[in-house]
Every structure is written in C-alpha cells, then in structure tokens.
Amino acid sequence: MTQAGRQGSPRNGSGRSGNERNSSQRNPAQGGSFSGGSRAGGAGKRASGFGADRPHRAPKPREERFIDPDLAGDQQGRGAEAARGAKPSSRKPAARKPGAKKAPGTPGAPKPKPRTGAPGAAASRAFGSERFGQNLGPVRKPARKKGPRGSVPQSELHDADGVRLQKVMASAGVASRRVCEEMIAEGRVEVDGQVVTELGVRVDPKTAVIHVDGLRIQLDENLVYMVFNKPKGVVSTMEDPEGRPCISDFLKNNKNTGERLFHVGRLDVATEGLLLLTNDGELANRLTHPSYEVPKTYLVQVRGPFPQGVGAQLKAGVELEDGFASVDSFRLVDSTPGHVLIEVVLHSGKNRIVRRLFDAVGFPVQRLVRVKVGPIGLGDQRQGSIRNLGKQEVGHLLASVGL
Fold it and tell me: Could you identify which of 126, 217, 255, 320 might form a hypothetical disulfide with 210, taking C-beta atoms 3.0 to 4.6 angstroms apart as the criterion?
C-alpha cells in the first residue's frame, strides 16, 4: 500500500484512522456527526457555505431578568407547581394590569370583583336567588327612616324563647344563613324599626316586624298576594247575581281556591289589566286609601290625531262633576292613522276617573288597560291568568304603603 493510501486522502473519509473516526463521532461540536464519515464531510461543506467566512463575534453578556420582590413568592409558587407537573396559569400577573399597584379607592385603581356575600352581589341582595317574580331592585323610598344605631339596647329586642334572627331570615328565603349573618353585621336588618347588628338576637317570628334593606319580610305563610290580568267583560267581584263572568271563575284551577280573597280596588267591565288579589286586609286598606297616593299606570287608546296642549291640560287639572282631577304624568306612546296610544299615571282612586278625564277633553276612550299598581307591573302576563307575587315584589308592595 502506498504512503498516500496509508495516511488517507483528504477527499475520502474512508482513509481516516480509527481514532479520527471515533473522535469525530464522539464530538459533533468539532464538525463531526453521529452518522458515517461521508455524511460528516457533506455537513462540513454545507457549514462552510453558511457563515464560515464571517468574522467571529463574541456572545453578548446575558442580562439578569428583573424580579419584582412583591411577586417573588408568587413566582416561586408557580415554579413549584410547574415542577409537580401542574399546568401554568395563563392569567397575567396583577402587577402588569394598569393601576394594579394603586391603593383601592384611589383614581385609576382597579375595582375589586364582588364576592359572594359582599354588598352588590346577587347572593347578598334580599331574595336575590328567588326564581319567580320580578326583580324590582332596591327600595327607592324606605317606609321609615332608620334610627340611630344603639338608640335602643339590643337586649330589649332579644326574646329568649324566640328563634335566632338569621335563622328566621333564611327560613323566609332572604338568603343563606351565612349571608344573613353578614347582612346583620353590616347593619342592613331592622327589627321593629330598630337596626340590629348582633348575631345572637332571638325574635318571635309571629310578632316581629323585620326589614332587610327596606324590604319587609312577610313571615305569615297564610297571607296570599296575587296579580290577575283581567280581560274585558269580566266583573270585578267574586260573585255576580246576574251570572256574568267574575274573578272567582278564574280562581277555580288555582291552589288558593279555598282562601277568602278580595280584590284591591275595581276595574269597570270594559277596562282590562292589573288587579291585585290578597287576603291581607291591612295592605288592601292602605293601597286604596287616598292618603298613601299609590300611583297607577294606564295605557289609553283614543282616536287620532291628538292635538298638542291636551296633555298639559290633563296635567293641570280638569273640572269634573265631583271636583277637579288631574294626571300625574302624560306620555304619547304610539300614533297610527286614526288611533293614538297614551300612557298616563295618576294616584286618584275615583270611579272611572280615566274615562271621565278623557271625555272632558273631548277624546272618549276606545280601550283602557291598567298595566301597573305601585311597584307591581303586569309585564308579559297573558290575559285571564293569575300569578303569585314573588317575595321581593311583596316586600316592595308593603314598603310602598309604609308596612
């Protein structure tokens, strides 16, 4: 074998010695490869074509990442979770949000999310988890002004033989017992007109008058409150000697058929809409008494066009056979050729007052529907149906007349 054959040719990798082949396979960082020598030669040629002639540049010094000391513990906790195989959270750190480092309550600070039981959360609102009835929101005009805290000792409201206040509230459906305790501690509960802040107070459910955020809690389960959407042609009585359709005809399939109910106020035969039914005599008397001025809302259809100035005339007052009468508000709802729909609100309980007012200004009523009494609205209740009021609605209704 020639000397060139023994030493190997630079163009043929097979001529390398065993030590060179082994070293190239063991150290790929020096131009070798884990594969055969011929592949290593090809890799070297490709490497020489991609930046082999470029000058050497020293690597840049690695910058130390800034670590916020306030977040160091949180980052360590996330690192421990990652080490255990937990999926890292995709939520951004609180410090990266605008205004995260500002004190709560200062301009630009983020608003905290409401927690369960915190004021403003649905669970902390009286009857907030109720499925039925309408959500009427907070009481706008409480029935009474809250007296100063501590004006009456808590011991005078305590009944040793009674039931804990939070348990009575929870049984009435106000909220869970824990949330009821928070309401008491926040001073949102009144017993017999006095604010209670102690959790150990016991009350008698049969005699105590309890308010939460101005809403009266009705503890008497025998009292019934319902809304009837009266159709045209039905008489506002429980029985009619002439055999005409009356309210009792629509109560036959109701579970409260055995209760002695009476209607609050009246609607004439031709008038449709909301009629309250209850066996709460005190509430019925106050709703119909003129001194409480409970507003009633009507939709009135008259012939059109309706000239300007008539609404102002109705608000200023019209002289009727039994004295002056007026509406509290007047609003044009809709207008079509030959018909005008108007919404009026008034608190007078005189007989056929709406029809007589529009007759006096020269626009006889074609159709009349009462859609609201106090805080209770008809909504989308179908005509001829009867529904029970929700506990929140009952509380608003009682508060509107000072109960």
Answer: 217
Strands 225-230 vs 272-278: parallel, antiparallel or unpaired? antiparallel
Question: How many Å is the maximal CA-CA distance in the chain?
Answer: 142
Closest CA to 203 of 224, 183, 219: 219
Write out pLDDT tens, residues 164-201. Answer: 999 999 988 888 899 999 999 998 999 988 898 888 88
**With the CA atoms of 339, 340, 345 and 346 taken in that order, what torsion angle do they form, in degrees rounded to the nearest 10?**
-60
Helix/strand/coil for 194: strand
Residue 325, amino acid = A
Task: Decide the pairing of beta strands 365-373 and 272-278.
Answer: parallel
pLDDT of residue 233: 92
Per-10-residue mean pLDDT of the chain, 403 residues long, equals 46 46 44 42 44 56 50 47 51 56 59 46 59 59 44 60 88 89 90 87 89 88 91 90 89 69 89 93 90 92 88 90 90 90 90 92 93 91 91 89 85
Whose CA is closest to 190, among 171, 172, 170, 213? 213
Measure the CA–CA gap between 282 and 265, rounded to whole angstroms: 14
Instruction: Give dist(CA 193, CA 141) in Å, integer.
Output: 15
Q: Are the beta carbons of 95 and 66 closer than 8 angstroms?
A: no
Structure tokens at 281: 């005599």
Encoded tokens for 4? 């060139």
Separation between Cα atoms, residue 159 and residue 173, nearest integer Å = 22
Considering only CA atoms, which of 186, 201, 203 is closest in space to residue 149? 186
CA distance 399 to 138: 11
Residue with tokens 């000072």: 402
What's the pLDDT at 232?
Answer: 93
Of the chain, the end-to-end C-alpha distance in Å amounts to 121
Residue 226's φ and ψ, nearest 5 degrees, are: -140, 160
* C-alpha closest to that of 120 among 182, 206, 203: 182
Confidence at residue 255, expressed as pLDDT on a 0 to 100 scale: 64
237: DSSP letter? S
Q: Which of 80, 107, 110, 108 is nearest to 93 (CA)?
A: 110
Alpha-carbon distance 95 to 113, whole Å?
16
Residue 377 region, left (φ>0) first, then alpha (ψ -120 to 50), else beta? Answer: beta
pTM of the model: 0.64
Which residues are registered as beta bridge partners of 320?
A: 323
